[in-house]
């Protein structure tokens, strides 16, 4: 194992090899044309001269008062940033753009300053650190999967409600989905031009439409950027892997007396990813935290002992790295790399029962503990997908009149990812003939002595090339819009209308994956005329060449081509989104406490997708008569599902949505003695082509009390989320699941899991309530802002699917309605479980957010500015009720095997001067449990273990604390160099034990990469 000093030297060498590249960029910046260097941004107020350019923002609630981006703005952003058009839509949980009152829905703002200081290769990583975001997906999640199609997809989840219940916008506009679930990929946004991210943590469907159940995240770009700015950075882990390079450049110029504005930006990012490791417990690099931690099932439910035991070094006893006879008289004989038989060390002092079921005395259901660990596949999973993204963006705006702009934007982006879900292709329950000529003579003789002609066998298939999943997402998004001001009946109205056409094309290709039935033919060898060949004549005619699976014998090129052809599984998906929207906002009436503000609008959206897959996965009926890539083969199943994994299907579907909304902001009180109060009302009618008409609404208000700086706010809303294309029209997808527990026979089997859509789904209906108190820059400490907000959300008619295990276990417990969805002893084909979405579940969650910030100028007379900001979220409960007989609600709050810890916080301290800046950041989440459903008990004291409340001997998962440090130095007024170190203390992740042989880690919460170094240079002119 590499010692720590050596690995640190390696990572520093790789990192600082890029200094030359940074110097090249610095030289290029210095050589920029004079017009670029002399043009200064025009979107900053002169009164902000005491703050660095990157940190100036107007407080929307009080435009004459200045705050730093990233400081608490109390959800006030109903006005616009200094210099922005009055018709800009700023997400604050309201469409009202009139100033004077703050919105009732809490809003967190991440400004450009915080984005730059975090120095991430993808802005997604910065936003996802917020405590209110739980369960977001990125390059480190989904790497265990072959068939999901979501590898490397960067999407947000607010309140732990899932990415599909968070509405993500770009400049207040819809973005075409990068997956059939409808969620966009943040990697495809023009990130260098983003000046602010607004996060609305609460239901906002009435104002912004479907999907805003958990909230809204809006990326606000600088639509009036002028000048040139660039960024180049590089990074690497302390283990010498995960290399990253990011290059960004944006140019903006005004023409025709400042009427024509043209902006161009381009980005290139390359992330090598991390992993995979190898068989056994050997992770990538010198990481040593993987221990194959497993929840082993004792099979005991009613003798006073726990059913599940938390154990390190769990080992499946159905297979090994190079092969194991798994049942019958020869059970326990394994093969080493040279093909020599030996007595397998099961661990747990396990003794093979040598029966037909393949039981092991002294072990557990499917697992022993300790012994020969060479066959593990979990450590061979990528810790982070490799990712490459290219992004091009342009915006052209022309001021038709002083208060009217016509604009067009074009965003073309490509994101490629690659990951290894596991090494080899483990197979269990294989039937091997004793006459197989590759078998050692001693095994053939043992067969004869025991009166058998065949035996069952399992192996990790280390002799096969490792599976690789490659995704390619390409986005083409075009927007044309008109926005501005107009006077009508003596009242000034702002308006915004746009049309968006988006196309996303996703190609998924899987390499080095076997066709199960061809593999079965290739391992069934015989000897004819002195030559070893495939036993089946039909298979031989189709090109079958035999393989030796009794040791580390690499198959011939012809054999590999037969079992794992060059053209593996593929899926080609085209999604289109057409969206047209128009809205107006104004103050038509002056009332006793101020003007009545009104916003109204109409929106139309059409979503469509079409997916085509390869015939070996989708079904041979789609094979072209002249196909050479996928020729017809009588060995294969005509209905498809022939691959080990990645059995994609053909499908298509579409729906359209028509919406109208009205929002009112009614001032109630405005006096020095009584304070200021307003009432915010919104309603929306939405007609879905698939499910009809549904309504959403919102009632809220704020009260600026007479007490210095004290503000109260509250809102309650009815929110909706319509089923997405995947849930409605999903092409059936098939996944191979090894070691699936069959409770009827207390054994493990290989199954095919089929996931299918349901066009009869209804919209989900949510009820959200929030109430909070804000201390907003009191006169006695004007640099301080603090807020506390309680939230409660209930979602009914939740579209969800039972897992394959839940479906089978429910039937085992007597719930007959799920029994028709599976067959675990299928004689007509593979064992299978069908998984389908339905509207029977519900989610209830509540908790509270705390946010505080304090800014001190010229601290201790040292000059500069010192800023502290902290955000925390406490989830009191997160209860999911499947809504089926025999099941009970499960509270996943505090279950650190998921994505919702009890407590999660983020703290940032920064000190800025004209010459340098230093930033410290702390990320923390609390200790938790593996699952709240478990009943912890000691041997001899346990109650009866049930599927709803199984007993266990240990149920704890430690939280984590991560410390980050970064800084920059201003080389010139326009150029700065910076560094960032994430996870400074190289904190290892906590095991997240499973009941199978996967990688026992949870990347949704824990850092799986370790300490990460970044350096870079940026400039703006």
TrEMBL record:
Residues 485-984 form the TonB-dependent receptor-like beta-barrel domain. It is found in: Cell outer membrane. Residues 1-36 form the signal peptide. Pfam families: Plug (PF07715), TonB_dep_Rec_b-barrel (PF00593). The keyword Phosphoprotein does not apply. It is a multi-pass membrane protein. Residues 39-88 are annotated as: Disordered. Keywords: Cell outer membrane, Membrane, Receptor, Signal, TonB box, Transmembrane, Transmembrane beta strand, Transport. The keyword Transcription does not apply. Gene3D superfamilies: TonB-dependent receptor, beta-barrel domain, TonB-dependent receptor, plug domain. PANTHER family: PTHR47234, SECRETIN_TONB SHORT N-TERMINAL DOMAIN-CONTAINING PROTEIN. This is TonB-dependent receptor. It comes from Sphingomonas metalli. The lineage of its organism: Bacteria, Pseudomonadati, Pseudomonadota, Alphaproteobacteria, Sphingomonadales.
């Amino acid at each position: 194992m590499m010692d720590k000093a050596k690995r640190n030297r390696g990572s520093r060498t790789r990192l600082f090899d890029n200094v030359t590249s940074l110097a090249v960029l610095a030289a290029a910046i210095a050589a920029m044309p004079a017009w670029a260097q002399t043009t200064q941004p025009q979107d900053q107020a002169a009164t902000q001269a005491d703050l660095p350019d990157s940190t100036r923002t107007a407080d929307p609630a009080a435009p004459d008062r200045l705050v730093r981006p990233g400081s608490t703005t109390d959800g006030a952003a109903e006005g616009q940033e200094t210099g922005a058009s009055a018709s800009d839509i700023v997400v604050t949980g309201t469409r009202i753009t009139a100033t004077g009152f703050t919105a009732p829905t809490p809003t967190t703002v991440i400004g450009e300053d915080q984005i730059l200081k975090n120095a991430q290769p993808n802005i997604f990583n910065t936003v996802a650190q917020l405590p209110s975001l739980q369960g977001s997906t990125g390059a480190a999640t989904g790497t265990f999967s072959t068939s999901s199609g979501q590898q490397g997809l960067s999407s947000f989840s607010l309140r732990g409600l899932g990415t599909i219940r968070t509405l993500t916008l770009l400049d207040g506009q819809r973005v075409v989905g990068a997956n059939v679930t409808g969620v966009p990929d943040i990697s495809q946004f023009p990130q260098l031009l983003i000046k602010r991210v607004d996060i609305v943590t609460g239901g906002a469907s009435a104002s912004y439409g479907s999907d805003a159940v958990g909230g809204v995240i809006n990326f606000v770009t600088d639509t009036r950027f002028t000048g040139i700015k660039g960024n180049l950075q590089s990074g690497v882990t302390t283990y010498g892997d995960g290399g990253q390079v990011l290059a960004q450049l944006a140019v903006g110029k005004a023409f025709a007396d400042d009427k024509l504005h043209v902006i161009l930006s381009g980005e290139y990012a390359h992330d090598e990813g991390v992993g995979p490791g190898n068989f056994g417990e050997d992770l990538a690099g010198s990481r040593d935290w993987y221990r194959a931690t497993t929840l082993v099932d004792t099979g005991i439910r009613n003798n006073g002992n726990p059913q599940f035991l938390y154990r390190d070094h769990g080992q499946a006893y159905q297979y090994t790295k190079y092969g194991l006879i798994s049942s019958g008289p020869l059970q326990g004989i394994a093969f080493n790399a040279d093909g020599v038989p030996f007595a397998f060390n099961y661990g747990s002092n396990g003794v093979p029962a040598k029966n037909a079921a393949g039981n092991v005395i002294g072990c557990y259901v499917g697992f022993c503990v300790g012994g020969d660990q060479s066959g593990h596949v979990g450590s061979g999973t990528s810790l982070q997908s490799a990712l490459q993204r290219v992004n091009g963006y342009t915006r052209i705006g022309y001021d038709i009149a002083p208060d009217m702009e016509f604009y067009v934007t074009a965003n073309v982006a490509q994101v490629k990812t690659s990951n290894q879900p596991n090494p080899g292709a483990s197979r269990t329950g294989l039937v091997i003939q004793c006459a197989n000529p590759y078998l050692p003579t001693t095994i053939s003789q043992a067969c004869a002595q025991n009166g058998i002609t065949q035996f069952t066998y399992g192996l990790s298939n280390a002799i096969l090339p490792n599976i690789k999943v490659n995704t390619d997402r390409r986005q083409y998004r075009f927007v044309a819009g008109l926005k501005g001001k107009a006077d009508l009946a003596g009242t000034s109205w702002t308006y915004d209308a746009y049309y968006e056409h988006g196309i996303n094309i996703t190609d998924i290709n899987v390499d080095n994956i076997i066709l199960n039935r061809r593999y079965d033919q290739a391992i069934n060898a015989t000897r004819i005329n002195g030559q070893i060949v495939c036993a089946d004549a039909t298979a031989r005619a189709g090109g079958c060449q035999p393989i030796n699976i009794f040791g580390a014998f690499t198959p011939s090129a012809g054999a590999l081509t037969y079992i794992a052809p060059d053209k593996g599984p593929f899926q080609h998906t085209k999604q289109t989104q057409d969206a047209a929207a128009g809205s107006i906002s104004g103050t038509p009436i002056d009332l006793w406490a101020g003007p009545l503000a009104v916003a109204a609008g109409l929106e139309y959206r059409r979503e469509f997708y079409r997916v085509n897959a390869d015939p070996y996965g989708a079904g041979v009926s789609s094979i072209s008569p002249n196909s050479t890539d996928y020729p017809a083969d009588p060995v294969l199943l005509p209905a498809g599902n022939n691959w080990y994994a990645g059995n994609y299907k053909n499908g298509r579907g579409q729906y359209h949505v028509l919406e109208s909304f009205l929002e009112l902001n009614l001032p109630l009180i405005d006096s020095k003695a009584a304070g200021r109060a307003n009432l915010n009302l919104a309603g929306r009618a939405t007609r879905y082509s698939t499910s009809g008409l549904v309504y959403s609404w919102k009632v809220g208000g704020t009260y600026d009390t007479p007490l210095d700086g004290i503000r109260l706010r509250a809102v309650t809303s009815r929110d909706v989320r319509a089923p997405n294309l995947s849930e409605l029209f999903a092409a059936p997808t098939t996944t191979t699941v090894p070691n699936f527990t069959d409770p009827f026979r207390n054994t493990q089997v290989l199954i095919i899991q089929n996931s299918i859509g349901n066009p009869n789904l209804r919209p989900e209906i949510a009820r959200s309530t929030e109430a909070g108190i804000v201390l907003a820059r009191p006169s006695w400490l004007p640099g301080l802002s603090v807020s506390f907000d309680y939230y409660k959300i209930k979602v009914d008619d939740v579209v969800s699917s039972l897992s394959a295990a839940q479906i089978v276990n429910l039937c085992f417990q007597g719930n007959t309605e799920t029994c028709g969805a599976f067959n675990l002893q299928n004689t007509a084909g593979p064992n299978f479980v069908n998984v389908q979405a339905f509207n029977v579940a519900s989610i209830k969650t509540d908790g509270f957010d705390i946010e505080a910030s304090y800014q001190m100028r010229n601290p201790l007379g040292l000059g500069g500015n010192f800023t502290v900001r902290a955000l925390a979220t406490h989830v009191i409960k997160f209860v999911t009720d499947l809504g089926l007989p025999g099941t009970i609600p499960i509270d996943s709050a505090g279950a650190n095997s998921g994505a919702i810890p009890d407590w999660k916080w983020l703290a940032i301290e920064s000190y800025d001067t004209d010459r340098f800046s230093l930033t410290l950041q702390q990320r923390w989440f609390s200790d938790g449990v593996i699952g709240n459903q478990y009943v912890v008990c000691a041997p001899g004291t346990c109650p009866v273990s049930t599927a709803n409340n199984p007993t266990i001997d240990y149920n704890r998962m430690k939280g984590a604390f991560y410390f980050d440090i970064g800084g920059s130095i201003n080389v010139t007024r326009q150029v700065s160099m910076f560094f960032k170190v994430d996870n400074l203390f190289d904190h290892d992740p906590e095991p997240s034990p499973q009941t199978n042989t996967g990688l026992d880690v949870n990347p949704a919460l824990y850092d799986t990469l370790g300490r990460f170094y970044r350096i870079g240079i940026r400039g703006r002119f």
